Amino acid sequence: MHLNWSQNAKASFRVPDGRNIKTSILDAHIQKAIDSIKLPGLSIAIVNDGNIVYHSVFGVKSYKTNEPVTKQTIFEGASLSKPLFAYFIMKMVEKGELDLDKPIYPYLKPIFPEGVIAKDSFEAYKTLTPRIILSHGTGIPNWVKGKPISIAFEPGTDFSYSGEAYQHLGAAFGTKLGIGWGTELDSLIIKEALAPIGINRSLYTWNTIYDNDVAYGHMKGKTNPEINRYKKVGPGFSLHSDAKDYAMFLIEMMNPKNITVKTRDEMLREHNHFKSNNKILKETGQTGWGLGFSQKPTPNGLMHLHTGNNQDFQAYTMFIPKQNYGFVMFGNSDNLFPLLETIEKILGEHF
């Protein structure tokens, strides 16, 4: 039996189709599901009308220790790193520190190692801008794993999801500022993007103060004994966070305070529309990408969403501005998405 720790502002909350759900019913449903699925640990939060109305944690940080997940536990956010980093970039654009449509290559040129880009892709690479990167229009593979980067199409003309491209944007901006892409860049992200919206337990590079609060990853039921203590900002993967902190980001996306409404609208506008043969469109109904989030039309309004998968950690988030509704979950294993499917039986469509 998994331990549950729930502190909810209300006894019930509203879901996108208008129904009210009792928190006790959702808690019991999740408890039963994670025991059945054998999910080690979970942090989950729901937003209604600018407030966190549900926040619960379940399970253990590690199967080896059976130490329970608490409200202080942080998880790897995997690709949920990307929308939050995009938000930081948009804040920097708003402040005049970066131009969305100016190529990033001039910032990287002084430090660019030879052979990183395939010769026949170099001219295309030199045209990449923050807007193209944030909306996944670069033509760069998701991860190249040390191989020369080959660009598959003219940037800005098609879709190719790419964590690799996000890494280049982070390096370019850190180099432009002269601070690199280590802890100084992370400190700037915290100062400009996270702290002003109430996020106080999330970071892209490791801080030892969280050594006792971190969940351990699990693959096929086995605990990974290593903690990824990232020393460099990985805009595409290195965020550590939890559901409550990330829910604060969803609140900001629906009710912006640290950025202007105009900047928020630019983030959520579709910048890369999927072609009719796009695999994601066919499989999920998502229609395109903004600057950070994917989009999917639903009967209850346009959903903005993102998945995260670092293998032994998985995460998921979505929000529907029309409903002022947001949802986020973090798990420390490779089997979070079956849990999402069973949660949808209670909450309705969320993916």
Automatic annotation (TrEMBL):
This is Beta-lactamase-related domain-containing protein. InterPro entries: Beta-lactam-related (IPR001466), Beta-lactam/transpept-like (IPR012338), Diverse_Enzym_Activities (IPR050789). Residues 26-335 form the Beta-lactamase-related domain. It comes from Aquimarina litoralis.
